[in-house]
Amino acid sequence: MSNDPRADFRVERLTDADARELATLHMQVWRDTYVGMLSQDYLDGMELEPRIAHWRKRIGVTSAREHGAADQDDGVRHRSRLARHLPSGRIAGFCMIGGPRDAEAPVPQELGALNVLREFQGTGVARLLVDETLGDRPAYLWVVRENLRAQAFYRKLGFAPDGGTKRDETLECDEIRMVRPAAPAHR
């Protein structure tokens, strides 16, 4: 692979035709990443067909939000993108951003999902996805407390824990909130 991820990956919009591959990728990333961090029963119980249906719905909703948000002036970007590995044609990962899902969000933009297959981690594709979806906007995210690798990556992007925590009873895990504030205004 090249030192420049743009040589090996193309960032694209999500389409309904990607639903099966995205569902498979999402399950694989979670099973590779979260063993010992999330409920093993949850991880073992994930089934492909319901995940495909979930992704089809998610693609439709995010596409509609993305197109509808173009006229909004609230500063919130709704964008979902995947990265396709050009040599293999496979989806390497995806990123989704949108408005906050929390009532008391520290900033109005949330990085809701970033998942990259293990074989493509360390290639620069995760940063490429964040750059193409979020850019340098202020944002916040939730990350599993034990996921130190993800936390280190987010720190490189300017995110820092702000003390926010929550418990996900379904996944049986604790999460911490990380925030990237607005860049200081230049004088």
Automatic annotation (TrEMBL):
PROSITE patterns: GNAT. GO terms for molecular function: acyltransferase activity, transferring groups other than amino-acyl groups. Residues 9-183 form the N-acetyltransferase domain. This is N-acetyltransferase domain-containing protein. It holds the Pfam family Acetyltransf_7.
